[in-house]
Amino acid sequence: MGRLVHCHLDPLGGLAGDMFLAALLDACPEHATDTFAAMRAGGLPERWDVRLVAHDDGGLSGYRVLIAGPDDDGPPAHFADLRAGLQGAPLDASVRDRAIAIFTGLAEAEAAVHGVAVDEVHFHELADWDSVADVVGAAWLIGALGASSWSVGPLPLGRGRIATRHGPLPVPAPAAAHLLQGFAVHDDGIAGERVTPTGAAILRHLQP
Fold first, then answer.
1. Are 15 and 157 in contact (CB under 8 A)?
2. Cα separation, 108 vs 194, whole angstroms
């Protein structure tokens, strides 16, 4: 597939970083190898596994991106350290800058809702390599597809509460809600977290 003029996302089940990757790689599977190579260049350790696997939920078929590794092996959790790691990673400059921009948007949202300085943000729930791989992979794919514009359909908000290091928080998580300001949303009656902070940060980067 060549470079796209426009890319529209239809977030039927919501959006997380791995869901964004899986949807694009389902449409353009020829980019999987290079996407995973970018994740490795971004720091994903060799003992972490990353795969594109077929998935059927009983209604629709597609793909899932599985990223898994040991619980005791994670990246720096503070934004300043995470940014420094990406700045020194052997990534193409455009991919590195886009990944840092996505994480910066997320850090700014976390700082706003938790009342801390941006560089002091601690990514409690994102301090794992799968989150870094999601963002770096998204940064690579966005550039590879080369769409001149992006749009997204109404986002399901979900409902209820989620357990976090900050204690129980409402759904959507405060950082996600901050990032989703201005996007069309709806309540489809399904409980649980539907748009994660990482998914929301990717959307905000695509539609600032």
1. no
2. 21
